[in-house]
Amino acid sequence: MTTAVILAYIGVALMIGLAGVGSAIGVSLGGNATIGALKKNEEAFGSYMLLSALPGTQGLYGFAGYFVLENVHKVLKPEMTLFEGVAVFGAGLALGLVALLSAIRQGMVCANGIAAIGAGYNVFGRTMILAVFPELYAIIAFAAAFLIGGSLVAG
User: Fold this and answer.
1) How far apart are CA 146 and CA 114, in angstroms?
2) What angle do CA 88, 64, 144 make, to 5 degrees?
3) In whole angstroms, what separates CA 80 from the centre of its chain?
4) For the purposes of burial, counting CB atoms within 10 Å of the CB of 17, is it exposed (0-12), middle (13-18) or buried (19 or more)?
């Protein structure tokens, strides 16, 4: 196994692992806020659940990044060059870190919205809008991973 392949798969592990950890933390933040909000307003559980689940999408971006590199662009191969391995490593590190932080921060926004709904404020729609902003950066990082994979195939 070459250094290039090892670097590439470390990048893939970071891509999937960090994105998944971020989602787990973000979803837990929303879940914790939901437990507190349920004590005040049980009827809004559907809103709490949707807001709690939202940070889980970043973990999907990590998996989708791997899917794009492996199944769409077919970049991961035993004969890959060191340049390709470093590129995949960089894409994985970038997507993993951005998704990690995006999911955590999105979870915080959602947790605050859940607490406000529990307190009786009608802020579900506004919370959803504000919670999408951190997700934008995970989408951009996914797009960058997609473009990196495409450039390796074209180059």
Assistant:
1) 34
2) 50
3) 27
4) middle
Return the CATH superfamily for domain 3-154.
Answer: lithium bound rotor ring of v- atpase (1.20.120.610)
How would you classify residue 36: left for phi > 0, otherwise alpha for psi between -120 and 50, otherwise beta? alpha
Q: Calculate what percentage of the chain has a pLDDT beyond 70.
A: 99
Nearby residues of 77 by Cβ (< 8 Å), 6 or more positions away = none
pLDDT tens-digit series, residues 85-113: 999 999 999 999 999 999 999 999 999 99
Residues 6+ apart with CB under 8 A from 143: none
Supply the pTM of this predicted model.
Answer: 0.94
Mean pLDDT over 16-41 rounds to: 97
Domain boundaries in the chain?
3-154
Give the whole-angstrom CA distance, residue 13 versus residue 7.
10
